[in-house]
Design goal:
Blueprint (H helix, E strand, L loop, with lengths): L1 E6 L7 E7 L2 E8 L2 E6 L13 E3 L2 E3 L6 E3 L5 E3 L8 E2 L1 E4 L2 E5 L3
Antiparallel strand pairs: 1-11, 2-3, 3-4, 4-9, 5-6, 6-7, 7-8, 10-11
């Protein structure tokens, strides 16, 4: 099921924005013109990833500096070892849409 997440204009170039929808925390990114969405909470410790740093195609957690590859969610540096969930995205009428269950 496709659901609207945020306006495309709200997602900064080469950076991250936190979006809370239906009680869930997401991170939306625009990297080299391509949009990505991941869960917004670090899988290592409860930290908001949007408060971290985007370095190329990696998000670095602000708490313990664990890193995740944004397009795939795979861990890219300790102490992160569990992948982030990623979501399929598309753009409709200026809105970033994500595909998710329910």
């Amino acid at each position: 099921m496709w659901k609207p997440l945020c306006a495309v204009a709200d997602v900064p170039d080469e950076d991250v924005v936190e979006v809370v929808a239906d009680g869930h925390v997401y991170c939306a990114y625009r990297l080299s013109g391509t949009h990505h969405v991941t869960d917004g909470i670090c899988t290592h410790a409860v930290a908001r990833l949007a408060e971290g740093f985007v370095i190329d195609d990696v998000i670095e957690c602000p708490l313990h500096n664990g890193r995740f590859h944004i397009p795939t969610g795979r861990p890219d540096g300790p102490p992160a070892c569990e992948p982030l969930r990623t979501y399929p995205v598309r753009i409709e009428a200026g809105m970033l849409m994500i595909e998710r269950d329910g």
